[in-house]
Amino acid sequence: QQQQQQQQKTSSSSFGWNVNTNSSKDASDLFGGFLDPRFKKEKPQTLGDLTKEKRLKTEDPVLIAVEEWVHGREKNIRALLASLGDILWEGARWKKISIGDIMEPAKVRKGYQKACRLVHPDKVSPDSPHAHLAKEIFIKLSQSLEDFNEKIEKEYKKPSTNSPSF
Question: Across the chain, how many H-helices and E-strands are there?
Answer without folding.
Answer: 7, 2
